[in-house]
Design brief:
The chain is of the alpha+beta class. The protein is about 35% helix and about 20% strand. The strands form five sheets. The chain has a seven-stranded mixed sheet. It has a six-stranded mixed sheet with strand order 7-2-1-11-20-19. The protein has a three-stranded antiparallel sheet with strand order 8-9-10, with no helix packed on it.
Amino acid sequence: MTAALPLKRVVIVGGGTAGWMTAAALARLAAAGTQVTLVESEAIGTVGVGEATIPSLHDYNRFLGIDEDDFVRATGATFKLGIEFAGWGRQDDRYIHPFGSFGRDIEGIKFHQFWLRQSGLAAPADDIGPIEDYCLSAVAARMGKFNRPVGDPTAVLSTLRYAFHFDAGLYARYLRGMAEAGGVARVEGRVTSVDLVPETGFIRSILLEDGRRIEGDLFVDCSGFRSLLLGVTLDVPFVSWQHWLPCDRAYAVPSVTAGPPLPYTRAMATAAGWRWRIPLQHRVGNGHVYASAFMNDQDAADALVAGLDSAAAAEPRQLRFTAGVRERLWERNCVAIGLSGGFLEPLESTSIHLIQAGITRLMSLFPDSGHSSVERAAYNRMMRDEYAHIRDFIILHYHATDRDDSPFWNQVRTTPPPDTLAARLALWRERGRALPEAGQLFTEDSWIAVLLGQAGRPASHDPLLAALPTAEAGRFLRHLRDVIGQTAAAMPGHAQFIARHCAGANLPR
């Protein structure tokens, strides 16, 4: 038997965030002798609206050895402590899905169970406030404060978690510099055809518009919604989830900065979708995600512009999409990363995380010339599970609502959810259980934030609480709330922190 050999040539088709995140990660292969080539065309452009992230990006940055202040300066970034949802459960309500944890568990009982019991007591003295008062990230977000967490696990400041808002174009440029410095070769050109090996159906090479041919052993499809390699060439079917997630279009537009940037993303529900607001150092990113079956394009664009907090800095740009994922994200010698493999609307800022998850798993299952089917199957199973978990969490926002003011909300509220989500909702509604599953992106605290924010209070709480006196628990909660509030109040303002540590210079407007 001939021994399998290391791959000699990796070809990434497409740039943008997905392409350059992949290239920067695979640059260490270039240092070890593997030729890594990225092919992109300036004429095609990129989607480039993924401007909000979640805390998992820290893992990717650490993997690349990125200095955080340098990265924030270069990308015009601000810090993100969570997402404020306005008008989702009811038209006039709002809540924050914060990063970080709620309170502190006691004797093996989850903190939110204490809060559920104490907040349900009738006596005025037992008024302990909303559960957001017990998460430092939420309290700091409301105050417009920011600081980095400390390492001391006994300090309240150690519980703060954060992510970033940044300019997607500047982020791709930043990573391109790292990738090219690490040995990745960039080729400018448009792919016109793909050559397959007749016997195996593997991709042998891509042909560019100017006649150049680029051969490879492994191809990474970062071509965006076109899915040029995985979808068009290898014909891997797309599984639509649009019956659960009917939003299929978006308009995006930047606006000028107006006042200090808030340390959180805003997601504001509309009659047929929702609008986002993402504050950067040098501008504000805005968008309107909507279902074309319930709102026409002109009304959607008008609603976006009318809802801006400051003057638009460009004309609105439209994107069209379908929520779903390819049946397989790794087929033969092609791996799809980013939009070429699947899309879930940016409600919980998971687009960049899914790119990162694809890269991380590719690195952990990186093939040799034997192209093991076992590795492909493992990758596909893990990525499909990741997409399905995130899908359920996003569907929760639409399904767990009391809104009945438009045909759109009536449809999403009454559409039966996936069985996996229905089981979670049943556990919550009975005794407030939000049990996590190992390895899933969204933590128990994330589920609690949205469930309490929209699904409402459960019928009861954990029966183990019966052994703990209510008066003692109330004193504990009020003390914890005061300490968290004092810690947040002592933090510097968000804009102040940026100005002191990582303000960008000469950023594009």
